[in-house]
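ok trying again, last paste got cut off:
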Amino acid sequence: GAFIEHIHVLDTLRSTEHISEIIEVRTKAELDRIDALIIPGGESTSIALIAERCGILDDLRAFVQTKPTWGTCAGLILLAKNAIHTKKGGQKLLDALPVTVSRNQFGRQVDSFTINLASPCLGADAAPFNYVFIRAPAIVSVDDPEVEPLVQLPPGHGQTEESENGLLVAVTYRKMLGTSFHPELTNDNRWHQYFVRMALGTA
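nice, full thing came through this time. structure:
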């Protein structure tokens, strides 16, 4: 996934948001060092498989239950309790965010798109954010009243009946943030700022 891009964006916030350290996480020792985690985009089944082979899948499951975690695109799928349109045989999930996610909701790579949307969660007078969707999932069901919807697409984006009412593409739940899009591929650091402040309790 685009983990390097996430690091670059976080670097722009290091001084203003009082970020003491930014590291890549591949081992339990590294996971134990951090206070908050971003699970990047990529291939969700591969991420789960690698985490399992590295012996940290169960550690990740425990981490996301108690510490701030943001899943972007494939990371959203991993965080979810339920996923549909997965590969044959299904896939392992972290079973944490009580939503149902539709994998590749918007089609193939060639169906990727961007859209500017007003995003009140980023500030009452915030300028629209340029959302980047690349083989993106979408949230087709919210399965717990504590889940807070943040961003919804206009009707008609997507390939199922659910898209007729506008699909959810960003939610929060307790210490979790789940987004379908790739904010790290823009020059706008507001979503990273949102997560950092959520993690630090300064939002």
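cool. Helices lie at 3-13, 28-33, 44-53, 57-66, 74-79, 190-200. The mean pLDDT is 89.
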